[in-house]
Specification:
elongated, mainly alpha
Length: 113
């Protein structure tokens, strides 16, 4: 069961890497809109994160406040990406906030104990 949990955590990290990598490519190229890699990475990270929030195997204690904060930040990232896609282009500051939220989600995961 632990191998399954580690595999899901790996998929979660791959989704995050896709989201952050896609963001960096767009931001550094000056295109300021979410690309396909970001649009795939977010649901991969989100879905794997939801699976990780299931308390399996028994005995694992979850921090539901941390999970709730990460969920809220992920929803905000998705909402901002959706709004940006609707407008078909965003400015540097708006797109930068998406990047800050991506990094905030990683910071919550690492530093919240």
């Amino acid at each position: 069961m632990e191998i399954l949990r580690l595999a899901v955590r790996y998929v979660h990290l791959v989704g995050f890497a896709m989201l952050l990598g896609g963001f960096l490519v767009q931001y550094l190229s000056g295109r300021f809109q979410s690309n396909l890699v970001m649009r795939i990475g977010l649901p991969v990270a989100f879905g794997a994160g939801l699976i990780l929030a299931i308390p399996f195997p028994s005995g694992i204690e979850l921090d539901y406040a941390k999970i709730g904060v990460k969920l809220a930040v992920a929803v905000a990232i998705g909402a901002m990406m959706g709004i940006g896609m609707k407008k078909n282009r965003t400015d540097r500051a708006y797109f930068g906030v998406i990047g800050v939220l991506i990094l905030l989600n990683a910071a919550v995961a690492v530093f919240w104990r």
